[in-house]
Design a protein that fits this description.
75 residues, transmembrane, transmembrane helix, membrane, 2 helices, mainly alpha
Length: 75
């Protein structure tokens, strides 16, 4: 079972997105909804980029380790 605690960035991002979703749901059909949707898309893009970066770090370290071994072995 993989349980991770949320970082402060992830918690604040989740809180901001939740508040914007609540605001968007409470708005009438044409009363500023496009601006809220743009903010939600921006937050979503940041979150996806952050999650991708977190996923790439272990891969980058593994790649670095392989190249370090190759360098130490004189390859």
């Amino acid at each position: 079972m993989n349980t991770q605690t949320r970082s402060p960035f992830e918690t604040s991002l989740h809180t901001a997105a939740s508040q914007l979703v609540e605001r968007a749901a409470a708005l009438p059909a044409e009363a500023g909804r496009p601006q809220v949707v743009r903010w939600l898309l921006a937050i979503g893009a940041l979150f996806i980029a952050w999650r991708m970066w977190r996923g790439l770090k272990p891969f980058a370290w593994a790649l670095f380790g392989l190249f370090a071994v190759r360098w130490f072995l004189g390859g």
